[in-house]
């Protein structure tokens, strides 16, 4: 079955299971004092010609001031009175207090920062700020990487965090150092503008630096979309570099698309032609990719963009998907994760206009009264895709063509060594939970600085070293291995696809552990695999978050752990390895010490009852939750066998017992510890041979 059809079917299946009715919302209406006419949307046919003539749609700026005014959230009022995201943040930054007030907290998000404090400290709050960069396609120039590495040591907590949206997070920055850190990033070819807040976030694209037309076109398109939807009113540069604008020249097609108002998308004479004073109702996420490459978790985004090429590999246009999103609220079934669904096809010259039309449809109609329902997925769930498409076509000025057929999707990590196609090599490195620190951090800096390498960050919290000459492969491989950055065949397969959000101690939303808890969870899953007889090279996609907001996209995992209480998780099952099916909640309030009681029977029966090459996620969906629950409820444990030492690893019992004693000190089995030793020894030997 073609992927386009199967994705639509998958989302339809989800929609049938969760029948939700969300109250209507009238969208934005202009203030009478602004003098803009009330928006009119007529659902008439739209010409498919390329001309961009005036339509009946008029852009509007903010809710109308009537006797009965539409309810708005507190954040909407803060944005309205902020002078385009300046006040009162500009005043709060000048005070001697270590923190800022609630209004400023909301505004600094647009600048790419969150106020945090260490939730484990007692006797008062020690405030700091997390900064998040914005790196379309995950591209990080050499100078920016070295700057971020320095800033982490000088002003942060000594580590860099790679995110699930191809960016850096820098934790622990004090308020008094914010301007120094921000200006350093800006002057080093970087930015944090729009990395958080109610606007378009970082645009994802495959991080692999292939010299292929389709990959390069996808990355160029991601850059252009990011530029199109970057705020224009200058608040960011006013705040951090005293109004100095440090920006590269924009492609003329971006400027043209942004300024085009032939279909009423823009705010005339506004410093924010697309966003206006109110920006968007909530965060907005976009990913661009090529057919088969689902390294970007395409269907979790508000907009998914897929490059379509002809038989010669020349880009012709794009398939568009809309309405994905992960966030939800526990025990509130009207909130839910959702897969994006097909919208249609556009020729390549129209992509910026089509994306802009979708963004404006959400801007004008997304809910601004209750932020739990403000993401575009709720608008589409309420309207249905046909009505949504019709309104978008009004702003686009054309009808969408039917989506093109696509091959099946694959998850691609790009770990290990690869040819770029231009004579150079790139090396993808696995980083557990995206945390770069200690010897790993020192070694990466030395390599990146010595060889003047640019890097790419991946949506799976990993890093790619780019532009490596073949003569450099051996010394770089050796240095990486000595720092614990092993080639993927020497890393536990469970770790290779696992992800976790930061959670405790700094995230204010965390309910339980994620990043600090996932190493132990993965070790315990590996032990369960061994206990039930699963092979070492078998794996499942595991993702852990400390709350239901879904930053590590747990609802796409084969096994998702979502924090729902202290040392407690909601367990989600049913995602697939290629990230095209959404998981469902299987059990609530599973205490961390009880995980084996759930996982053992599930993996035991997967081992014995699966079909040929059936993934764990597909298995759980085929068998059904009723049967899975019965297995868990009736589980008595794996049939015990007489203890013995492993003859494949240990030549004598004495060696086994010594290894077992050492392993227990590390909360491992003798087999696990022995395999780690063997893998590291093999890696060292391979490095010496220059492989």
Automatic annotation (TrEMBL):
In short, the EC number is: 1.8.7.1
Protein location: Plastid, Chloroplast stroma, Chloroplast nucleoid
Give an example GO molecular function. Answer: sulfite reductase activity
Question: What cofactor(s) does the depicted protein rely on?
Answer: siroheme; [4Fe-4S] cluster
Cellular component, GO annotation:
chloroplast nucleoid; sulfite reductase complex (NADPH)
GO:BP terms for this protein?
Answer: sulfate assimilation; sulfide oxidation
Q: Which reaction does it catalyse?
A: hydrogen sulfide + 6 oxidized [2Fe-2S]-[ferredoxin] + 3 H2O = sulfite + 6 reduced [2Fe-2S]-[ferredoxin] + 7 H(+)
The family database entries (InterPro entries) matched by this protein are listed as: NiRdtase/SiRdtase_haem-b_fer, Nit/Sulf_reduc_fer-like_dom_sf, NO2/SO3_Rdtase_4Fe4S_dom, NO2/SO3_Rdtase_4Fe4S_prot, NO2/SO3_Rdtase_4Fe4S_sf, NO2/SO3_Rdtase_FeS/sirohaem_BS, SiR_ferredoxin-dep
Q: Where is the Nitrite/sulphite reductase 4Fe-4S domain?
A: 224-400, 497-634
Keyword annotations of the record:
4Fe-4S, Chloroplast, DNA-binding, Heme, Iron, Iron-sulfur, Metal-binding, Oxidoreductase, Plastid, Thioether bond, Transit peptide
Functional note? Essential protein with sulfite reductase activity required in assimilatory sulfate reduction pathway during both primary and secondary metabolism and thus involved in development and growth.
Q: Which family does it belong to?
A: Belongs to the nitrite and sulfite reductase 4Fe-4S domain family.
Q: What is this protein called?
A: Sulfite reductase [ferredoxin], chloroplastic
Q: Which organism is it from?
A: Salix dunnii
């Amino acid at each position: 079955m073609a992927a386009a059809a199967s994705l639509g079917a998958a989302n339809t299946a989800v929609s049938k299971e969760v029948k939700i009715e969300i109250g209507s919302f009238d969208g934005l209406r202009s203030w009478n004092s602004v003098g803009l006419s009330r928006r009119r949307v007529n659902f008439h046919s739209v010409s498919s010609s390329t001309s961009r003539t005036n339509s009946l749609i008029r852009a509007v700026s903010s809710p109308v001031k009537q006797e009965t005014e539409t309810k708005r959230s507190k954040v909407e009022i803060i944005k309205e009175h902020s002078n385009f995201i300046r006040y009162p943040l500009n005043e709060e930054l000048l005070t001697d207090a270590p923190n800022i007030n609630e209004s400023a907290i909301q505004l600094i998000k647009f600048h790419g920062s969150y106020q945090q404090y260490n939730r484990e400290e007692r006797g008062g709050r020690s405030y700091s700020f997390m900064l998040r960069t914005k790196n379309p396609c995950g591209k990080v120039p050499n100078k920016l990487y070295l700057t971020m590495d320095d800033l982490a040591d000088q002003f942060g907590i000594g580590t860099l965090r790679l995110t699930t949206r191809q960016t850096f997070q820098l934790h622990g920055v004090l308020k008094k150092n914010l301007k120094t850190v921000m200006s350093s990033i800006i002057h080093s070819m970087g930015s944090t503008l729009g990395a958080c807040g109610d606007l378009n976030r970082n645009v994802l694209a495959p991080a692999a630096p292939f010299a292929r037309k389709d990959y390069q076109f996808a990355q160029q398109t991601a850059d252009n979309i990011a530029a199109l939807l970057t705020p224009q009113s200058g608040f960011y540069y006013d705040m951090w570099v005293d109004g100095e604008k440090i920006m590269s020249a924009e492609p003329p097609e971006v400027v043209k698309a942004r300024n085009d108002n032939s279909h009423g998308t823009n705010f005339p004479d506004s410093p924010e032609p697309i966003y206006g004073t109110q920006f968007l109702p909530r965060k907005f996420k976009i990913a661009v990719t090529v057919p088969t490459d689902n390294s970007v978790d395409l269907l979790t985004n508000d907009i998914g963009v897929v490059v379509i090429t002809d038989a010669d590999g020349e880009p012709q246009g794009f398939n568009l998907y809309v309405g994905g999103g992960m966030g939800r609220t526990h025990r509130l079934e009207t909130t839910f994760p959702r897969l994006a669904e097909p919208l249609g096809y556009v020729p390549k010259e129209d992509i910026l206009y089509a994306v802009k039309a979708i963004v404006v449809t959400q801007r004008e109609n997304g809910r601004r009264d209750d932020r739990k329902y403000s993401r575009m997925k709720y608008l589409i769930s309420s309207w249905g895709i046909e009505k949504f498409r019709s309104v978008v076509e009004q702003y686009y000025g054309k009808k969408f063509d039917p989506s093109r057929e696509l091959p099946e999707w694959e998850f691609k990590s790009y770990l290990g060594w690869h040819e770029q196609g231009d004579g150079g090599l790139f090396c993808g490195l696995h980083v557990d939970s995206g945390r770069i620190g200690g010897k790993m951090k020192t070694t990466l800096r030395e390599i990146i600085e010595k060889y003047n390498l640019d890097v790419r960050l991946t949506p799976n919290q990993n890093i790619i070293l780019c532009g490596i000459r073949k003569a450099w492969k051996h010394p770089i491989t050796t240095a990486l291995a000595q720092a614990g950055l092993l080639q993927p065949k020497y890393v536990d397969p469970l770790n290779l696809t696992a992800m976790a959000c930061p959670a405790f101690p700094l995230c204010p939303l965390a309910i339980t552990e994620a990043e600090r808890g996932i190493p132990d969870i993965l070790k315990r899953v590996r032990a369960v695999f061994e206990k039930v007889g699963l092979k070492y090279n078998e794996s499942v996609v595991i993702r852990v978050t400390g709350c239901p907001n879904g930053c590590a996209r747990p609802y796409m995992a084969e096994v998702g752990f979502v924090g729902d209480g202290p040392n407690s998780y909601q367990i989600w099952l049913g995602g697939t390895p290629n990230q095209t099916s959404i998981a469902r909640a299987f059990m609530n309030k599973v205490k961390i010490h009880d995980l084996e009681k759930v996982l053992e029977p599930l993996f035991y029966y997967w081992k014995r009852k699966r079909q040929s090459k059936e993934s764990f996620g597909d298995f759980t969906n085929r068998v059904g939750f009723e049967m899975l629950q019965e297995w868990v409820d009736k589980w008595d444990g794996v049939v015990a066998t007489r203890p013995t030492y492993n003859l494949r690893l240990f030549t004598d019992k004495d060696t086994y017992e010594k290894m077992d004693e050492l392993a227990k000190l590390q909360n491992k089995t003798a087999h696990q510890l022995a395999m780690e030793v063997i893998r590291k020894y093999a890696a060292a030997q391979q490095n010496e041979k220059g492989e």
